[in-house]
Structures are given as structure tokens and as C-alpha cells.
Amino acid sequence: MDFILKKKYWFIGIGVAILAVVFITFYSMNRGVTSESQIHTINVTSEDTYTSVSRHLEEEGVIRSASFMQFILRFKLDKTLFVGVYEIDASWTTTQIIKHFDDQRNAQPNVVTITLPSGGWAKDFAALLGEETNLEADEILATWNDADYIESLVETYPFLNEVLTLDDLKVKLEGYLYPDTYEFKRITTIDDVTHTILNNMAKVLDSFADEIEQSRFSVHELLTLASIVNYEGNTEASMRTIANVFINRLDINMTLGSSVTICYALQTYESWQECERNIDIDSPFNTYIHLGLPPGPVMNPVSLAIEAVLNPDDTDYLYFVADVTTGEIYFAKTYEEHQRNVEKYVDPHR
């Protein structure tokens, strides 16, 4: 009897030990890879299966074991895997991750529509791309400012060649990133995104090929002046007249005196008044103290601004100012006339 009882207890002990081992193993393999939140973006295609996805998750360091995930999935009756892009947190347990894949609402479409707005800076575009894709804004901006990378693009986009010889540019591709509405893959690369945008700029520049050939400006100079015109103007007509004002100033060796170049020199500012208060800032982009064009574009211009520089109005205007309440622009031939416009349309709002 004692032997039978001992044997019974022995089996119970073994069973408890096995259960303990199973529990500890399950807990160890199931728990998250990290204790703090760490989001990974996973693209699931129509060719994927839970087997391929689990292997990818293990390779990316999102789960501890693909084999363990596949073992758990054996007990799952519905193994439907929805196509799309998932955001998975490496702090989640494997069972939580499987449950996340179960909900089709978590499968985001792989293509995103992003509008890069007229007037936007390269850093603004990078931020928008960073919000909607798997890319990091800082890495995008660093790449757009990398001389070696730009050099690798020149063969495909020869209009970038001039950028390589210039100093003082804040972002080398500033001005060449054409503002438009694009469709990008949510899981993409900086190179693919950059080529998509530059392909658009190449089409725009090609549409003006003959006019650029006959122009007094190089492509870089054209985009530089167009960026200022785009920034200052608010209609096609105003852009043409503003372009003419700046060209008239260049012709008589007069500084451009554009406050938008001060805004770009500052990089961060709270209002247009701050730009106008800093017209003595020590920067090569300061067109109040430096003659000619700044080192490069101060934003990314659209075709209207480019065309305005290539086909400006023919006037004797040397000055302009915008009514800060209505946006209407007033032009002047003399400084005295300009000052009257400033006193009337700007000074009351300073």
C-alpha cells in the first residue's frame, strides 16, 4: 500500500513538474521581446502565410520564436491572414500578436496618398513622409542632404549636377522636390520615394526645356528665384509681376530684399514679423545684405512660379508689398511710393 501510494505521489510529482516546465516554457517563449513599447511595421502580401510572417517577425526581432508562434497557430481554427500593413509592438506577447492579425481593421492599405504642398520645405516633406510611411523623417532629410547620394542621382537627373558644386545649402535637394499629390507604398525606401518625386520634377523641367535653354538662368538659379516668387506670390498674375520686380533688381545690382529668405535663414519662426525683424541676420540666405540670388531655393516651387520667372511681366516696378489682411499685393516704381504702401497696408499690423 505504501508502495502504491508512493508511486501515485511520484507520478503526481512528475506531472506537476512537467506542467511547471510547460508553463515556464510557454511563458518564456510567449512574452514580448522588449519590456518597453517598440513598434515595427510589417507588410503582409497575398503571397504570405502565417509561416512566412512568423519567420519574418523572428528575423526582425519582434517575437522570440517563429516555431513557437507556429505551434500556437496549430490550435487556431481560422487561419485567415489579411493582406495589409500592420503595426506590431515587440512588447506584445506572441498570442497578442496573433490576435492582432485576426482583426482586419488592423490591416492598413499598403499604398498611401500624401500631398507635398506648395510652399513646403524639404524638412516639411520629410515629416509628412515619416508620418505616413515606415521611413524616419531625420533619415530622409539626411539622405536629401548627402553629397554622395546626390552624386548617384546625377546620371538619371542631370539637372542636379550644379548642386554638387555649391556650398551653404541647408538641404541639397531643396527646391527640386516637386510639390504634388503622390501615392507611395507604406513600406518603402528613401530611394524609391526620392525617385518618384524627382521624376515629377524632371517632367516639369522638360516641359520648359526650350525656355530654360533661352533663359539667362541656370536650372538651379531658376528654381532659386522661382522659390522666392512662389513664396511671395499668391496668384499666377502676381507671381509674374513679382518675378519681374526681382529681375529688375538683379539688373541694377540691387539686393532682392525678400523677407522670405530671412524666414528660411531662421528655419524656425512664429510669425512673418519675426522674419522682418531679423533682416540683419548673418546668413548667406539674407537677401537684404547680400547681392544676387541666395545659395539655393528657399522652398520647393510649383510650375506656375517657374513659368513666372521664365515669362515675367515687363514693368518698371522695383518694390512690392502685400496687404497682410487681404493678401492683395501692391507694386511701386519708387521707394517713396513703396513706403506709402507699407504705411497703409503693413505698419498697422506690425
Q: Could you characterize the architecture of this molecule?
A:
- The chain is mainly α and 350 residues long.
- It folds into three domains: 76 residues, Dna Ligase, domain 1 (2-Layer Sandwich), CATH 3.30.1490; 97 residues, no CATH class; 100 residues, no CATH class.
- It is 49% helix and 9% strand.
- The chain contains 15 helices and six strands.
- A hairpin with a 6-residue loop joins strand 5 and strand 6.
- Helix 2 packs antiparallel against helix 3.
- The chain is elongated, with a radius of gyration of 30 Å.
- This is Endolytic murein transglycosylase.
Cα separation of the termini: 102 Å
State the shape. Answer: elongated
How many structural domains does the protein architecture include? 3
Question: Helix and strand succession?
Answer: HEHHEHEHHHEHHHHHHHEEH
What does the largest sheet look like?
Answer: 2 strands, antiparallel
Strands in their spatial order, largest beta sheet: 1-2
Which key phrases capture this entry?
transmembrane helix, single chain, mainly alpha, 9% strand, 3 domains, 15 helices, Dna Ligase, domain 1, cell membrane, lyase, EC 4.2.2.29, two-stranded antiparallel ribbon, 350 residues
Could you provide a short overview of the structure?
The chain has 15 helices and six strands. The protein has 350 residues and is mainly alpha-helical.
Layout: helices, strands, pairs:
Layout: H1 2-30, E1 39-44, H2 50-59, H3 66-73, E2 84-89, H4 94-102, E3 111-116, H5 122-132, H6 137-144, H7 147-154, E4 180-185, H8 190-207, H9 209-214, H10 219-232, H11 236-251, H12 259-266, H13 272-277, H14 303-310, E5 319-322, E6 329-332, H15 335-345
Antiparallel strand pairs: 1-2, 3-4, 5-6
Helix pairs in contact: 2-3, 5-6, 10-11, 10-14, 11-14
